[in-house]
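BUG: 3D viewer hangs when loading the predicted structure for this chain

Environment: internal workstation, default settings.
Expected: structure renders.
Actual: progress bar stalls at 90%.

Input used:
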Amino acid sequence: MTFTDQLAAARQKNDSLLCVGLDPDPGKFPAHLKNRNEAIFDFCADIVDATAHLVCAFKPQIAYFAARRAEDQLEALIAHIHEKHPGIPVVLDAKRGDIGSTAEQYAIEAFERYRADAVTINPYMGHDSVTPYLAYPDKGVFLLCRTSNPGGSDLQFLNLEQDNSRQDKNGEKLYEHVARLAAEKWNSTGQIGLVVGATFPAEIARVRALTGDMPLLVPGIGAQGGDIEATVKAGKTAAGAGLLINSSRAILYAGQDEDFASAARRVAEETRKAINPHR
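Structure tokens produced before the viewer hung:
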């Protein structure tokens, strides 16, 4: 099954556009977990088990594991998701960006070592930095396009020079150019998606207009303050799909005691309920 097929099946089964981001920070863990050798795995696995029936995907952020030498726990966590919750895709949030043989190694890391179903990458070194990931034709590849952080505008919102070969003589912004490339030239497998931030709903709508039904991974709701209604209305497809709306901290750290997973489940369910009426 391809990533997009897996995503569609999970969305339909769980009636959800919610993606739970797994960004484990041991400093925020409940006290009973803090001295465990496998605390990162235990924390994330409990969150996964509590919320798997409410999501269309999980998105572990690799830096939170690698910074604490917990890559083995990340491998175990993704294996746990595949075994205990088959059909829920895993998007490895790695934001890799390099060319040639190095990109090939990053693709092996994401898809063979970690067995992720999709990965986030930085496309700003061009097509040859994307191609190695497309050698895995059933895997998803999310390109950074219009990110949720304020500094993203430093580059992504730059106006490009006018292109006289296009009917639109006003030129376009860099993020729009990335969206066009992804949709028109690079998407040889049909598994490419884009990362667009919930903090910029007007740009989400523009990306949707440029890319048809391409999957959009949308961080920025919850702790970052993105508006759910505006996000869904701007980014949904005609079928009310096409979005993975990510929430991390607001769900992960909803509770600080031994019932933290139950608190995470409650917030995840509230978030799904907030999303669905606008589909």
